[in-house]
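Thread: "does anyone have the structure for this chain?"

Original post by V.I.:
We have the sequence but no experimental structure in hand. Need at least a predicted one for the grant figures.
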Amino acid sequence: MKISKETKIGAIFIVGAVLLIWGYSFLKGQDLLTRSRTIYAVYQNVSGLGKANPVFINGMQVGQVTHMYFDPVLNGNIIVGLTIDKDFPIPKNSNAEILSTDLMGTKAVNLNLGSSTEMAKDGDTLTAKLAATLTEQVEETIGPLKKRAEILLSSIDEILISLNAALSEEQVKSIKGSIAHLNSSLQNADTLMQDIGGFVSNEKSKVKDIIDNIESITDNFKNNNEKLSAIITNFHSLSDTLVQANIAGTLGSVNKSMSDFSLIMNKINKGEGSVGLLINNDSLYIGLEKSSRELNLLLEDIRLNPKKYVKFSLF
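Reply from O.Q.:
Generated one for you, tokens below.
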């Protein structure tokens, strides 16, 4: 069967029209080839949202914005149609939140799923929500800090004005001198810390030797554990022997001897007995000195006049 030229042209025109309609719908955010549903949300401000912007659930794109128009009652509200092309259950108490997806301000709608058991159907309206912009978030965070900083700066300014009015030139010079001394002290402290660091660095090898010696001593203790145990056992035996010995009696005898010696020394100090008289009475000393002097005179006379005392006779 031969197809006429007119039939071919008509078929091509129809296919082209269909493609044109589908492409136009796709560019507007409508996909005619997929089974979808449209739900709505009413906003007072869409914050730059436009058609074909994506719709997300938990970060996954499930549709796009397909309709945007003012409420017919002309109250300023904007009705936004969200075409969902995924067969995903959306609770009816979910909300549609407009948010920014990047720092450039690209908008999207995120569906925050609710907990209702009743699911949203085609044509239902969800609660609308507008997320704070980045600028608003920064302002919300920085605003209180800015106010506190302004109050603090105002307080500091008042304090400086009061100090300037209260302090004399001599007091200002004194404060400057104190700051200079403080700076000098800090520099000296820094120098001291550097010296300490250098000393520690120089003495590091000695400290290492000391630690090595300590480790060597501990090793010796460990290696001579049996000998140390024997010494401790011997010392324990010696202490038991001393406990068993009559140390108390010996100490008592020593104490008695010391008492007797103390009595003898008291008698000597009082001049009792021969030793006491010899020590405490100087007459014996004087007599001995006199006798010694007379003996020296006698010896000197014998040396000078030997004939007086020694006589020689031959017959």
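V.I.: this helps a lot. The chain has a mean pLDDT of 77.
O.Q.: and Residues 246-306 form one domain.
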